[in-house]
UniProtKB/TrEMBL annotation, chain A:
Residue ranges annotated for the 4Fe-4S ferredoxin-type domain, each copy included: 18-47, 55-84
UniProt-recorded Gene Ontology molecular function terms: 4 iron, 4 sulfur cluster binding; metal ion binding
Protein name, entry field: 4Fe-4S dicluster domain-containing protein
InterPro entries membership: 4Fe4S_Fe-S-bd, 4Fe4S_Fe_S_CS, Fe-S_Ferredoxin
Organism per entry: candidate division WOR-3 bacterium
Automatic annotation (TrEMBL), chain B:
Sample GO molecular function, one term: thiamine pyrophosphate binding
UniProt protein name: 2-oxoacid:ferredoxin oxidoreductase subunit beta
Organism lineage: Bacteria, Bacteria division WOR-3
PANTHER family hit by this protein: 2-OXOGLUTARATE OXIDOREDUCTASE SUBUNIT KORB-RELATED, 2-OXOGLUTARATE SYNTHASE SUBUNIT KORB
GO biological process: cellular respiration
Residues of the Thiamine pyrophosphate enzyme TPP-binding domain: 72-215
Organism: candidate division WOR-3 bacterium
CDD domains per UniProt: TPP_OGFOR (cd03375)
Length: 98, 305
């Protein structure tokens, strides 16, 4: 993740990382999660689900910060994220020196 | 085309068997719900389920009552004690529920046509009495389930089935209505403001008194289509552009015009004795020392405290 300055708690905090879970056949293809994901993790799939909608597909799994917005905005209870305890992606916040 | 239908989508942990964390709170035999693609009602229900998990009230004490309409379906989808009442009568039913068992946290989850139009009289009197309950009013500006007739919340100029040249009536400003009737917690969000909505719903559920949360929600199939506003996603973008957060705003200024700005936020939060408080106080004065505070007929009849 890019920071415009070095965070004050950078020595002991790391940005979280999440795993996105999608139930593709429950999705109605509204695109809320795709449009409002702050990290642009999702995109419309080329494929159809059983209902004939295009469900989201994870295109940048490494960018997910487990903010939970996709899970909160989904009207169909078809997408959510869980924290990924194993994988910590960022080196703690190496921002540009001021 | 057949290749697109049969092959699984590539990339990403797409999992079929896993269960959504809200599934313990949903009647899964009724899911998927009937709400249209890009409708905002599912989002509001999703936020409500998060809020009941975060509220200080135990799950067994939560009850949900709803009336008729698209939003009225919500009571059938939530796996807590729920009741789907007749049109407009969600509030009187909820009032009776609260009086029968005052320990319950009663939530009314219904639409604008149910609460403000046919149930308008019940709304103002529930607010006036400061009944201890939470009302979630999902406002989509029309009667969506019956085909898009205009109602008391339709903004002036919006076209609908029964207003093909545009509605010419002055709409209700719902936060002002309930505020002036005596509601003690009034807030408004749109279905885009999910985090704020969850916070507000938790506050409203923990609030003692009549708490009212209006949620502006897109209706892609009727309201947006008749007015050529695009899909629900386009309406969320409109909310993003034109919503203005103003906590503590004077509710007289928060009326909504067609394609105009939407003022959102927590408008009113105050303390006032609830209906049961005033009843206990008044009867206590009349009866004197022998008066026992009202705990509902069930507790009184079986003799347990």
């Amino acid at each position: 993740m890019k920071y415009w300055r070095r965070p004050l708690d950078a020595d002991h905090c790391r940005s979280p990382h999440g795993i996105v879970h999608i139930i593709i056949n429950r999705c109605k293809g509204c695109g809320f999660c795709i449009n409002y994901c702050p990290k642009q993790v999702l995109e419309f799939s080329r494929h159809f689900n059983r209902k004939g909608y295009h469900p989201p597909v994870v295109v940048k799994p490494e960018a997910c910060v487990d903010c939970g917005l996709c899970g909160a905005i989904c009207p169909e209870f078809a997408i959510w994220s869980t924290p990924n305890p194993e994988c910590i992606l960022d080196e703690p916040a190496e921002a540009k020196p001021a | 085309m057949s290749e697109l239908l049969t092959t699984p989508a590539p990339g990403g942990p797409v999992v079929e068997e896993e269960r959504h964390p809200h599934e313990p709170f949903l009647r899964m035999d009724r899911i998927p719900h009937i709400w249209c693609s890009t409708c905002g009602l599912g989002t509001v229900l999703n936020c409500y389920i998060t809020a009941i998990q975060r509220s200080s009230v135990p799950r067994a004490d939560h009850t949900i009552v709803s009336g008729i309409g698209c939003t009225g379906r919500a009571a059938g989808y939530v796996k807590i004690d729920s009741f789907h009442t007749t049109h407009g009568r969600a509030l009187p039913f909820a009032t009776g529920l609260k009086l029968a068992n005052p320990r319950l946290k009663v939530t009314v989850f219904s639409g604008d046509g149910d609460l403000v139009a046919i149930g308008g009289n019940h709304l103002i009197h529930a607010a006036r009495r400061n009944m201890d309950m939470t009302v979630i009013c999902v406002n989509n500006f029309n009667y969506a389930m019956t085909g898009g007739q205009f109602g008391p919340t339709t903004p002036e100029g919006a076209k609908l089935t029964t207003a093909p040249y545009g509605s010419y009536e002055h709409p209700f400003n719902i936060p002002f209505l309930v505020d002036s009737c005596g509601a003690t917690y009034v807030a408004r969000w749109t279905s885009l403001h999910v985090r704020e909505m969850i916070e507000t719903l938790v506050e409203a559920l923990n609030h003692r008194g009549f708490s009212f949360v209006e949620v502006i929600s897109p209706c892609p199939t009727v309201y947006a289509r008749r007015n050529r506003l695009g899909t629900g996603l386009d309406l969320l973008k409109y909310y993003h552009d034109s919503a203005e957060v103003r906590h503590g705003a004077d509710t007289r200024d928060v009326d909504i015009s067609f394609k105009g700005r939407i003022i959102v936020g927590r408008f009113v939060q105050r303390c006032k004795p609830t209906y049961l408080d005033t009843m206990d106080a008044a009867l206590g004065r009349s009866v004197g020392k022998e008066f026992v505070c009202y705990e509902g007929p069930m507790q009184a009849s079986d003799g347990r405290s």
